[in-house]
Hints:
The complex is a heterodimer. Chain A is an alpha+beta fold. Chain A has one helix at about 5-30; strands spanning about 60-65, 70-80, 80-85, 90-95, 95-105, 110-115, 120, 130-135, 140-145, 155-160. In chain A, strand 6 (about 110-115) and strand 7 form a beta hairpin. The longest helix of chain A has 26 residues, at about 5-30. By secondary structure, chain B is mostly helical. Chain B has 18 helices and two strands. Chain B has helices at about 5, 10-40, 50-85, 90-115, 140-170, 175-205, 215-225, 230-245, 245-250, 255-270, 285-300, 300-320, 340-360, 365, 375-405, 410-435, 460-490, 520-545, and strands at about 135, 555. Chain B has a two-stranded parallel ribbon with strand order 1-2. Chain B is globular and about 60 Å long.
Amino acid sequence: MHIHRFEKLWIGLSLFLIACFIGIVMFGFTVLDLKVPGGDPSGQTVDPMNLTETPFANPGIREIEDGQAEYEVYMVARKFLFQPSTGGALELPADTRVTFHLTSPDVIHGLEVVGTNINSMVIPGQVATFTTIFPETGTYGLICHEYCGAAHHSMQGQIKVVPKDEFDESTLVDADA
Amino acid sequence: MTFVDHYPKATRVIKAAFLVAFTALGLGGLGGLLQALHRTDTVRGIISSTQYYDVLTGHGVLLALVFTTFFIVGLYQWGISRSLDREPENMTFTWTWFWVMTVGTTLTTIAIVGGLIPGSEISAAVLYTFYPPLQAHPLFYIGAAGLVVGSWMAAADWFWSFWKWRENNAEESIPLQTYMVLFTMLMWYISSLGVALEVVVLLIPWSLGLVTNIDPLLPRTLFWYFGHAVVYFWLLPAYFVWYSILPKLSGGRLFSDSLTRIVFIMFLLLSTPIGFHHQYADPGIDLGYKLWAVISTLLIVLPSLMTAFTVISSMEHGARQRGGSGYFAWMGALPWNRPAFVGCALAGIMFAAGGFSGIINASLNIDMLIHNTAWIPGHFHLTVGTASALTFMAITYWLLPQLTGRTLKYNKLALAQPYTWFIGMTLMSNALHRAGLAGIPRRVAEPMYRLVDYDPPFGTVDEMQWQVAVGGTILFISLIMFLVVVVANWSRADETAADIDDTLPSPLSGAEHSPKILDNMKLWIGIAIVLVLLAYTLPLADMVMDGLFSPGAPPSPV
């Protein structure tokens, strides 16, 4: 089989380019710690029809000490609101590692915090988990980015990031209320 | 004498398939116009924000599934009959697959349109991806299954023709167009099995109420097992045109037969095992599968880059035959006044841009910036919406005379159409990409939220909205231009015109230089299946082990 030398060169350059793309993703993943959402590390699923038996029975922000993060947020996405954050802004401290856990009791939703790389699917039965840091204070809009029904375009919320020393710990919820 | 005189039976089924395809194109395109105007708040009130999702479902299904599949079966029937020099083996069987597809399409369309009729019990506002627990009327799923099964029968018809041809041509290399058709359809068999299982085993029983609850992750994963390979099912027929017809339209010959075959083998091997790149942001899919998807998805860039080389070098060869010279000046010698060439060439240019935005989508953590934002429709309107759709429209200008026996009327309108499409798509797609970078979501009737401020990195939100509305309108005008040309050229001539252009020159480096192993279908099917099993066995087993319908969520009819 004859392959023209220009074509050989082109294939070589293409493979090099592809290797660079893969390298960039891996560099971001390892060195810059740019991760993607995943499930519960233990592979646990939840019963969408019975969230009262789970930590999602009492959604909100809690203090934790697991070495990964200082706080964790349990959030429920349901038609057509986020609990917490739709009724009133969810307040979080800046410069602090916060782990989010999300699930849905009804249909597939999405979570996008506009202006950040926070982006996750929320799937009934699964718990989406990711850890993040908000370096800057301010108010962030939060939207459902997966079509979830007739009023999908109304599903929104807010996160208010405050300086760490101004964070009001009275907003914390109990784990097993 | 042209195609219609040699193969009158094949011509009838090709024209029937094109008729359905172009009807779907007109209806789906109208949906697109309504969305562009509604979403950008340019014109609201024709449809409500709730009906937006019915229209969006129709737009996605009619264009991405119906227009593409019907055009492809028509185009491929042409390629098979022409390159094997055969009519279909049994017309009853051929018309059976056509009608299975058509009845299926009709049922699905009824379910979708039902949602727009007040008081109707039938609706299917589940969008093109139909993720459960959103639940459509059973007709939606039954019709979709018909469309897929009909396309399988069409593929079987072409294999039948090929085996019959093989009986008399035992030693010959597979004709190149037939090769491209058969490898596309092998890929289609492997990948559409996922959606068939999803629909038949899970969704039809569930929509009929035989089971109540559904596990959302399993059908979603089966959908994406199919859902990325399907884009290659749309794209490979465009490649078929770019490899086998575009060099001739440029005035030259294909660069290499063997590299064409290698590219199609790569797509057979890599199209299906990469579906997890649509689930980077999903819980319930282990990180290892996502990382493997990054590598295999970026590897599939290789056959497309090779295609860019082959197509451009074939065009350059043609331009030089036409008297072009210089490093870049040869481009001016290409036939920029012939509609079929112009459409294919502009589609190729836009595909390059779409390919680059696709590389962002494939890049795991970078994808988190744009996942499910307007960037994604910006991307796929360049790929399926231009690379495939504009190529299909353009090659219609070249094929239709062969199916009717009359030379093309309305040449100037046909020539203006691809340029118009290019302008409309440039406006709409660049704005959608940038809107995605600003975080504006896709699939939403009203993207301006009370609690959200967008801060675009380039341009302003108003300017992007304006470009989407104007671009969408121009695209719809281009679509009407195309349909006018088709209608004007549809009927059979009383006598076939003498000067219909239907010959295809042989490649510069022909099949005699291609190693036999490239034609070894069993080998390549075997490797393709192994790669699929490696990518999908464990994750699917994980999801199935706790019960097919568990953890179950209740249905949510829309």
